[in-house]
From TrEMBL:
Residues 1-20 form the signal peptide. Gene3D superfamilies: Zn peptidases (3.40.630.10). The lineage of its organism: Bacteria, Pseudomonadati, Bacteroidota, Flavobacteriia, Flavobacteriales. It comes from Fluviicola taffensis (strain DSM 16823 / NCIMB 13979 / RW262). Transmembrane segments: none annotated. This is Peptidase M28. Residues 79-292 form the Peptidase M28 domain. One of its GO terms (molecular function) is metalloexopeptidase activity. InterPro entries: EF_Hand_1_Ca_BS (IPR018247), M28_fam (IPR045175), Peptidase_M28 (IPR007484). GO terms for biological process: proteolysis. The keyword Signal applies.
Length: 300
């Protein structure tokens, strides 16, 4: 693995592999999914409660935490941003959205991604990294604002471009908790892909578009190396259904290198955008392995 230095391998070998805390993961999932009202764009008070919870949890671990607020039709929505090693000019963004589509708990979509961010914050506290790590919890990823300039990730990505930020890459955490070992539990946008990737929904995917950029390519290699769970890499054209179905699309729009870590959403999890997307459907231990892989990839 020529992209690793002997020093990084030595440093990582001193870290216990099982880092993510499955008990904490369950507790965080419970807080995010068992809310009085669904955390959708119409329930702005609920979105604000979730944002405040994320903010307070980030504060326990990050160097600095702040809101990125903006207006949509007279209402204020906000991203929550946590920074580590913020004096470094080069920046890596890890992001996930905290809103849901419609009236559902949104356990996999996307409480799982937010819990990934919160666990990464805990794991990153006090760790030495050679870049600024920016964890971003986005609002308004879901319809009716998907693919609009009102997405929280659009606001964030544009702010980075406008400030000429040296972004080495962006990693989007989009549904990272649903796995199935049974055959014929994994679908694909093109049927013949099953011949190459298999019919079992038992892996995590790192999704890139063609011409994805150096930062995304490096992160994908690290995930493959450090994750105990099988990692399958998928590169394709932006026109392929699902390849840009999350916040990373806005970083592509701004010319940044970005990828998506996902359990493949509706190609596997039939609870997608349904009321059955509940915490009990998630595999917490495998989700923890995904978080471990991301954490070690950040440090390498």
């Amino acid at each position: 693995m020529k992209f690793f230095t002997l020093l990084s391998i030595f440093l990582l070998s001193s870290i216990s592999y099982s880092q993510a805390d499955t008990i904490r993961i369950k507790e965080l999932l419970t807080v995010l999914t068992k809310t009085p009202k669904p955390r959708n764009y119409q329930n702005i008070d609920q979105l604000n409660l979730c944002a405040d919870f994320i903010f307070n949890d980030f504060q326990e671990y990050a160097d600095t935490v702040f809101y990125q607020s903006y207006q949509v039709r007279g209402l204020t929505y906000k991203n929550v941003i946590a920074r580590f090693n913020q004096k470094e000019a080069k920046k890596l963004v890890i992001g996930a959205h905290y809103d849901v589509c419609g009236n559902q708990e949104g356990a996999d979509d996307n409480a799982s991604g937010i819990v990934g961010l919160l666990e990464l914050a805990r794991l990153l506290k006090g760790k030495s990294v050679n870049k600024c790590i920016e964890l971003v919890a986005y609002t308004l990823e879901e319809p009716p604002y998907f693919r609009t300039e009102y997405m929280g990730s659009f606001v964030h990505a544009k702010s980075l471009k406008d400030s000429n930020t040296e972004l080495v890459g962006m990693v989007c955490l989009e549904m990272i908790g649903y796995f199935n070992e049974a055959k014929r539990t994994q679908d694909y946008p093109i049927g013949f892909l099953k011949l190459f990737y298999g019919s079992r929904g038992n892996y995590i995917t790192v999704v890139n578009k063609f011409g994805k950029g150096k930062g995304s390519r490096k992160f994908t290699k690290k995930m493959d190396y450090f994750t105990q769970l099988p990692v399958k890499k998928f590169n394709g054209p932006k026109s392929l259904t699902g390849i840009d179905f999350s916040d990373h699309l806005n970083y592509w729009k701004m010319g940044f290198s970005a990828c998506m870590v996902t359990d493949t959403a509706f190609y596997r999890n039939k609870n997608y955008h349904q009321k059955t997307d509940e915490m009990g459907t998630l595999n917490i231990s495998k989700m923890a392995q995904v978080i471990d892989g991301i954490f070690l990839s950040i440090l390498a």
